[in-house]
Design goal:
- With 438 residues, this protein is of the alpha+beta class.
- The chain has three domains: 114 residues, ATPase, nucleotide binding domain (Nucleotidyltransferase, domain 5); 114 residues; 154 residues, no CATH class.
- Helix content is 48%, strand content 12%.
- It is built from 15 helices and eleven strands.
- The strands form four sheets. Strands 4-3-2-5-6 form a five-stranded mixed beta sheet.
- Helix 11 packs across helix 12.
């Protein structure tokens, strides 16, 4: 896909959080708002050179930092107003750093909080190499990504209207209308309500749904054509995954952007909000946290793909049934979404299409007979999503791995049964008896 402009260091890979550690002569922290901006400039010794409030305009920013343009770095918190400042810095050749809002706890702590203090804290974090970085999405694709997010917003609003119609029918003890998401099934729905006010409310909802259908069709056509311009190969690789259609492929394409910005697959699935983040201290477990850190759009996309993957797909249905028998239905779908994310990561990194035989193959547990070879999954349009790849091995609910790596991770010490008690437990019991005899 696109080249990685800011590859993380080995230390950043270990920590899971990237900090900006490059040294500069001047450090500029900005508390940015829609109409105002508070600018604080520090030198290498930590002395304040500029600390003033002003309008959020390019002219004011360039005038304020004009005397410190030589080896200057600018940092701002990741809120909705950072687009124009990032583009301006790129145009003027000024280093720009986007701070991760949830990780910048120093901004939200303290006894007092105002714009002046916040700007100084951002500059101090930047100078000390402790500013957590967020990803600066490139300008040429940013507008398309935002348009795609807007399309998802319209789709949810359309679903709310359809849900309101069904709930209104339940209020008046009317039979359910079935799948009124399809235009052909919405004929005669409003006439079933006798009260004229209720009928008018339903007619209004139906009119809005028809308008949303028209807008969504136009947006989907435009977005598909745009995706073919940006990265058509990655788009069709994503389409090869069962459960990922045109819209989900667009969401994944524009939300991921550059798969190489994730050095490990664990970093990617964490960014997709598909892992649990445990809280532990002094050997004690305090539950989980960090569920809001990551990309909510990728979380939704892979969750949808896990459900859609089961449609007309007996191989996937049998696979999820095995997981549901062990973990329950809800967790089984979560495991499938997690595994789809890992598969997408390795597909995009290696430039390969999806291989269903490799993905759904489960390593045999215990000494039972080997599982029969699974037929490749075929898409509705006759396209073989498996690409006729050789059968691989995978851990149930685990990684989309190469056979050598699976052989290394999948090796387990087998304990044989003897008289209903394992040899390991029997040896432990014998040792305790000898200890008691002494």
């Amino acid at each position: 896909m696109w080249p990685n402009k800011h590859p993380p260091t080995g230390r950043e890979e270990e920590m899971g959080m990237r900090f900006y550690t490059k040294q500069h002569r001047y450090y500029c922290g900005i508390d940015l708002h829609a109409r105002r901006m508070y600018i604080c400039v520090l030198d290498a010794e930590g002395q304040i050179r500029v600390h003033r409030n002003g309008p959020a305009t390019p002219e004011h920013f360039l005038t304020t930092v004009a005397a410190y343009r030589e080896d200057l770095v600018v940092a701002v918190e990741c809120i909705f107003t950072w687009y124009w400042l990032a583009d301006l810095c790129a145009q003027e050749g000024i280093a720009f750093v986007l701070g991760h809002a949830l990780y910048m706890k120093a901004i939200h702590g303290g006894k007092a909080k105002n714009d002046k203090i916040d700007a100084h804290k951002i500059a101090v974090l930047l100078r000390g190499g402790m500013l957590p970085m967020a990803y600066v999405y490139p300008r040429e694709m940013r507008a398309t990504r935002d348009l795609l997010r807007r399309r998802c917003h319209f789709s949810r609003k359309r679903a709310e209207l359809l849900t309101h119609i069904q709930n209104t029918a339940s209020q008046y003890l009317l039979p359910t209308f079935g799948k009124i998401a399809y235009h052909a099934n919405r004929a005669g729905v409003a006439e079933q309500f006798r009260d004229p006010e209720v009928r008018k409310s339903v007619e209004t909802n139906l009119a809005l749904v028809d308008e949303y259908d028209r807008l969504l069709s136009e947006l989907e056509l435009h977005l598909t054509q745009t995706a073919k311009v940006h990265d058509v190969n990655a788009f069709y690789r994503l389409r090869s995954v069962p459960g990922i259609g045109k819209i989900l492929a667009l969401v994944l394409l524009y939300e991921i952007h550059d798969i190489h910005r994730f050095p490990r697959v664990q970093d990617f699935v964490s960014y997709c909000r598909l892992v649990k983040c445990a809280k532990e201290s002094d050997g004690k477990h305090y539950g989980y946290s960090g569920t809001k850190i990551g990309n909510a759009h990728l979380k939704w996309a892979f969750s949808e793909a896990a459900v859609l993957c089961l449609r007309k797909n007996p191989v996937a249905q049998r696979y999820v049934a095995r997981l549901a028998h062990k973990h329950g239905k809800g967790k089984a779908l979560t495991i499938l979404a997690h595994k789809l994310a890992r598969a997408v990561y390795h597909m995009l990194r290696r430039g390969q299409a999806f291989e269903a035989t490799k993905f759904f193959h489960v390593t045999a547990r215990g000494g039972g007979p080997p599982r029969p070879e699974i037929d490749p999954v075929t898409r509705e349009d006759g396209h073989d999503a498996s690409r006729s790849g050789p059968p691989g091995h995978d851990l149930e609910g685990g990684r989309y791995l190469d056979p050598p790596e699976i052989a290394h991770r999948g090796a387990r010490r087998r304990v044989h049964e003897r008289d209903g008690v394992t040899t390991q437990r029997a040896a432990g019991a014998a040792a305790r008896v000898m200890e008691a005899d002494r």
